[in-house]
Design a protein that fits this description.
By secondary structure, the chain is an alpha+beta fold. It has helices at 7-19, 23-31, 144-151, 156-167, 170-180; strands at 38-46, 50-57, 63-69, 75-80, 87-90, 98-103, 108-116, 121-131, 140-142, 186-194, 197-208, 214-223, 229-234, 240-242, 249-258, 261-268, 277-281, 286-290, 300-304. Strands 10, 11, 12, 13, 14, 15, 16, 17, 18 and 19 form a 10-stranded antiparallel β-sheet that branches. The chain has a 5-stranded antiparallel β-sheet with strand order 5-4-7-2-9, covered by helices on one side.
Length: 305
């Protein structure tokens, strides 16, 4: 279920965050909320983590631009507005800016996620710009993960349900591995398709080794029919290692993100048990072991773009 953040919830979340800030932190957050039609926040995020922000779009706005730039290394930008079709996923490689633009955007609160991909800490600037120029821009940090925990408390039942949801992302990983077998070293960009429908995008970075093996880095985002976002990417420092024939994944750790909760997918020797695939979810942890043969929905394909 996707977040629908009301103004009162966002104000409450911002107030909770401000209560624990130093005086200088409070001043910085205040100054980032009202600064004409453009406002920016300078921050950083760790790999396999994200920070969430909110911006208010007033009525009569003709253009909304959200830009993630001045990156020290790779991070990605994801935006969701008040309606299901108000979405944007930008997963540019390296330090290239990620940008989402909306014309005649839906008035109300918009949720912005910045997700770290490269190893370590990534510094960035997040900027929101509104048109016409007299529209007042706003941008503040929230804890979207905490808001979701309040709406769906963790329990053994929800954790096992998330393991089932995570299984629905495995066909994307399978398609990426099968596609990577024929790719040369370099960056490759794809559209995820099921039949004629585009359901997301994937970026694969392949490194061919001298002994015939291949190292595969994956970033992918998939949206379901309701517009709900699912993220798949290799954990920083733990890419997939394919054997010389590209038929077996020897090791690797993949992050599967389900509404701000990560499920770890371990492969090959990284499972520690000899299993082909191992899904690990907190708390517990709850662990589920699978084989590649258990992965269904083989109709999903990666189309070059």
């Amino acid at each position: 279920m996707r977040h629908r953040l009301s103004g009162s919830v966002l104000i409450l979340a911002a107030a909770v965050l401000l209560a624990g800030c130093t005086e200088s932190d409070r001043d910085r957050k205040r100054s980032s909320k009202h600064a004409g039609n453009t406002v920016s926040i300078h921050s950083s995020v760790l790999d396999d983590h994200w920070k969430s922000y909110a911006t208010h779009v007033p009525r009569g706005t003709t253009r909304l631009e959200i830009r993630l730039h001045r990156l020290s290394q790779d991070a990605d930008l994801f935006v969701a507005g008040p309606r299901d079709y108000d979405t944007c996923d930008s997963v540019e490689r390296g330090t290239r800016a990620d940008t989402c633009v909306f014309y005649n955007p839906t008035p109300g609160e918009w949720l912005i996620d910045v997700i770290g991909w490269d190893y370590g800490r990534t510094h960035y600037t997040l900027t929101t710009t509104l048109s016409p120029s007299y529209k007042e821009a706003s941008l503040w940090q929230i804890d979207a993960g905490a808001l979701r925990l309040q709406s769906t408390p963790l329990s053994a039942g929800t954790v096992h349900s998330e393991l089932e949801d995570a299984q629905t992302l495995l066909p994307v990983l399978l398609a990426a591995v099968e596609t990577a077998r024929t790719l040369e070293s370099g960056n490759h960009h794809f559209t995820l398709r099921r039949n004629a429908d585009a359901i997301g995008q994937a970026d694969l970075m392949v490194e061919r080794m001298g002994d015939g093996r291949a190292v595969l880095h994956i970033k992918a985002v998939r949206r379901d029919a309701e517009g709900q976002r699912r993220l798949i990417y290799t954990r920083a420092g733990h890419p997939l290692v394919l054997d010389e024939h590209g038929e077996t994944v020897r090791q690797g750790i993949v992050s599967l993100h389900l509404d701000h909760r990560p499920v770890a997918l371990r492969l090959g020797s990284d499972t520690g048990t000899g299993a082909e695939l191992q899904l690990v979810a907190e708390p517990g942890p709850a662990v589920q072991e699978l084989r590649w043969g258990d992965v269904g929905d083989r109709g999903l394909q990666l189309e070059s773009r």
